[in-house]
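Predict structure. Chain length: 412.
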Amino acid sequence: MAKIIPFRAVRPTRDKVSLVASRSYQSYTPNERDSRMDYNPYSFLHIVNPGYKYQKEISGEERYKLVRNRYLEFKEDEIFQQDDTPCYYIYKIVNREHESFSGIIAAASAEDYENDIIKKHEDTLQHRENTFKEYLKTVGFNAEPVLLTYPDNDAIAAIISKTTQSRAEYEFTSTYRDTHYLWKVDDKESILAIQKAFSLIKTIYIADGHHRSASSYLLAKDLKESNPNHQGNEAYGFFMSYLIPESDLRIYEFNRLIKDLNGLSKEEFLIQLDEWFRIENRGIEVYKPSKSHHFSMYLDGEFYSLYLRKTIYEFTDALEELDAQVLYKTVLKPILGIHDLRTDTRIEYSHGKNDIISVKNKVDNDEYKVGFGLFPASVEQMKKIADQGLTMPPKSTYIEPKLRSGVTIYEF
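Prediction complete.
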C-alpha cells in the first residue's frame, strides 16, 4: 500500500561528496560552523547559512531566497549534478562502534502521510511546520531525508545485499569516524522490484523527522490546491526519505536533568518518591536501569535505583507504559511541578549516547540538582503508540542512524 518511488537526485560529484556532506545545521556550535565554513568552501553549510558570506545573521524570507541562490551557485559550478533518470539510492553507514545501517533513499508519498499509511508517534508544533513549509516552498528542494522504518522484508533485503556487493558510488568517512556508502539503483528490474515490495507493506513508521514530514505534507496540500492541472504524480506530492528495516533502527533514551527540587528538601523529595517507587541507595556505584519501569536517579553525590510500584500505577494504553510518560506522571509533574516539557526551563535532556556519567557530571558541577536515567523505548513500543494514534512526550527517543545533509537532494 505504501507508495515509495525513485527520483532524480541532485548529488555532489564523487570527488567532492566528503567535502559537501555536513551534519544537521543545529548540531554544530557557532564556532564549529564558522571553522568548517572558513576552511571548506564546498560545505553544504554555505548553502543553509548564506549570511556567512556577508558576515551577517539573516532570517526569514530573505534567508530562504539566499539559500536558493547559494544552491543554484553550487549547481552552476558543477559541484552538484542531477541524475538523468529516476533512481533509488542504497545508503549504508558503519559507525565507530562498527554498527551497520543499510536502507533506501527514495521519495515517500505525502498522501500516504495524510492517510496514516505513514504513521507518526510525536507531536509537532504548528509554527515550526509552517515555517519549514515556507522555507521549502522558497528554496525548492529538500536535502535532509525523513527517517522511516518498515518491517524487515526479504525481497528488499535481497536487493540491498546484491547491490552492495558492487563498488559504491560514494565511500567517505566523516570526522565522527562514521563511514558512509551510497549505491545508485537505476536498472529497471530492480526499480520495479523495490517499488512492488514497498507497495505490499501496509504501514511505515516515522522514526525521525516528524516536522519535516508534516511540513512536506502541508506544502503538497498548498501546491495541489493552487494547481488546477494537478495530476497526482507531481514531485511536490512526495518527500525524500531514508527507509530502513526495523532491525537496523537503534533507539537510545533521553535522560532528564532538573535544576531544583521544587522547594523540597532532599528528605521530603525522597519520601514523596516512595509513594510510586521502591528506592534503593546505591551510593557512588554507577547505576543504569536494565529494563523498562526501572529508573536511575543521581542526587547529592549518590545513585539511586527506582523501581515502579506497578500495583498502584495504571497501564491504560501504550503511552502509559512508556518510561518517559511514567516519569512525567509520577515525578516531573506532581512532585517537581514541571507541566510543559517543551517550554519549562527547569528541565534539560541528555541522550543516552552521552552515557549516564554525563548526567552525574552535570549534577556534580551544580548545573542541575537531580538527574534521572531511563531505559530506552523499543521499536515495538514506538509502533504501538503510533498505531493507537497517541504521541510520545518530547525527547522520548534518540534515534540512529543520522544521515549527512547534502548527499542526496530532492527537488520539487
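Summary: The longest strand covers residues 100-109.
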